[in-house]
Design goal:
The complex is a heterodimer of chains A (202) and B (202).
Chain A (H helix, E strand, L loop, with lengths): L4 H10 L3 H15 L4 E5 L2 H10 L22 E5 L7 H10 L5 E5 H6 L20 E3 L6 H16 L23 H7 L14
Parallel strand pairs in A: 1-2, 2-3, 3-4
Chain B lengths: L6 H9 L3 E7 L2 E6 L4 H10 L7 E8 L8 E9 L4 E9 L6 E3 L8 H12 L2 E3 L31 H9 L9 H11 L16
Parallel strand pairs in B: 2-5, 6-7
Antiparallel strand pairs in B: 1-2, 3-4, 4-5
The chains are: A alpha/beta (202), B alpha/beta (202).
């Protein structure tokens, strides 16, 4: 948002009012009903994602008429499947190429937390690489699960306001080359559940 | 079927001392070779008309948890004419240098198989034309993941792993042939230095 500090102060003084809320409603309605997904399918979740897009579940009912295989025309990144470290710079670049407004859905246990792959090769949750709006649990989630996640994203978008200029801020990599502070990454990547008792040889 | 492969007798006649011992496990014949003469034996198996092992199914390696047992490099051969299989093993001292002769000159398919064994186990193949990592990225520095002394989650902290992964520039590791193909297709250099955006808060 190209809103300067002074403009923002001015807008905040008079807001929210009838005009801004109606405008928010209109903009959010347009955004929720025309979310174009950028599919980032790496594993079995992508199969469920394809099922969701196919005729029985039909993503087109929610305005996701077309997969946007170019990140430059996409609104929502759906990471369906595990993300190895080798793909970390790839998903980061795709995310950087998507124009605002943009959202992301982490589909399945592996994308959200590393899942069963608590090992040397796998990113422990894509939220250590890019910001995530909705996490869909499941291994893999059924199409209904993904649709529920998409509806949650609709709900989230419906609550957004043009006056909140923090929302559309581009979250870049920090100077140390990470997206989050290192201690936060380590905390997010801690072993949990069954993998706590897995041995670390050496 | 527990009968020994007919190749064993022929091998013993031809090489004698280079055949250390043989075994039949689950119907498969295993021949243990002396490391220094293995290449010679494999070449003979490929080129002798009676043997004609013209297809290299797989090369892999085994490190046992028991430190007393030797490290094994395994060759699985198949003769497409005779419908015959043969498994050959070279035993190496896990404390010593892990080095065997490449069989790339016999079977071109050994190229990536040997790269994979090098990547995962650190076995060096003398005479391989392009011994680079193949599964992990080329600048990966934590070691060889399938070795028993390699910790399940790698040596570095998760934050450091994520930082190194995000700093990768995947196109720097394409082979010259791949880059040439890209140039021919697009008529320009697709990989001219893309710099990831930095700065801003997270």
């Amino acid at each position: 948002m190209g809103v300067s500090q002074e403009d923002h102060a001015l807008v905040s003084e008079i807001s929210p009012n009838w005009v801004t809320t109606k405008l928010d409603y209109l903009v959010n309605l347009a955004r929720t009903k025309s979310l174009w997904p950028m599919p980032f399918g790496t594993a079995c979740c992508a199969i469920e994602f394809m099922a969701t897009a196919a005729s029985r579940y039909d993503l087109a009912r929610f305005g996701m008429e077309r997969m946007s295989f170019s990140p430059r025309q996409a609104d929502v990144l759906i990471c369906a499947g595990r993300l190895p470290f080798k793909l970390a710079p790839v998903i980061r670049r795709i995310w950087d190429q998507m124009p605002q407004p943009k959202w992301s859905i982490s589909m399945g246990a592996c994308a959200s937390s590393g899942g069963i792959f608590d090992n040397y090769a796998m990113v422990q949750g894509i939220d250590t690489i890019i910001p995530v709006d909705v996490y869909v649990p499941g291994c893999p989630p059924r199409p209904e699960g993904l649709l529920y996640g998409i509806l949650m994203l609709h709900k989230k978008i419906s609550g957004e306001s043009l006056l909140d200029d923090g929302l559309r801020q581009e979250l870049m990599l920090r100077d140390d080359g990470l997206f989050l502070p290192p201690e936060r990454v380590n905390e997010l990547a801690e072993p949990f559940g069954n993998s706590v008792s897995q041995t670390r040889s050496g | 079927m527990t009968t020994e492969s007919s190749s064993v007798e022929a091998l013993k006649d031809a090489f004698g001392g280079a055949i250390l011992r043989t075994a039949v496990v689950c119907g498969d014949t295993i021949v243990y070779l002396a490391p220094d003469r293995a290449h010679e034996v494999l070449a003979w198996l490929k080129d002798t008309p009676d043997q004609a092992f013209n297809y290299l199914t797989d090369i892999t390696a085994v490190e046992y948890r028991d430190p007393e047992r030797p490290f094994e490099v395994v060759y699985q051969l198949r003769s497409l004419e005779r419908f015959a299989d043969l498994r050959l093993k070279i035993e190496l001292d896990p404390q010593g240098e892990l080095r065997v002769d490449s069989v790339y000159d016999l079977w071109r398919g050994a190229d990536w198989l040997e790269r994979e064994v090098f990547d995962m186990f650190g076995v060096a193949f003398t005479g391989h034309p392009d011994l680079r990592r193949i599964l992990m990225w080329e600048t990966y520095s934590e070691g060889h993941p399938l070795r028993k002394d390699f910790p399940l989650r790698g040596h570095l902290s998760r934050a450091e792993q994520v930082r190194r992964a995000l700093s990768l520039k995947p196109e720097e590791h394409y082979s010259p042939e791949e880059l040439e193909l890209a140039r021919k297709r697009h008529g320009r250099d697709e990989t001219s230095g893309w710099v990831p955006p930095r700065g801003g808060g997270a």
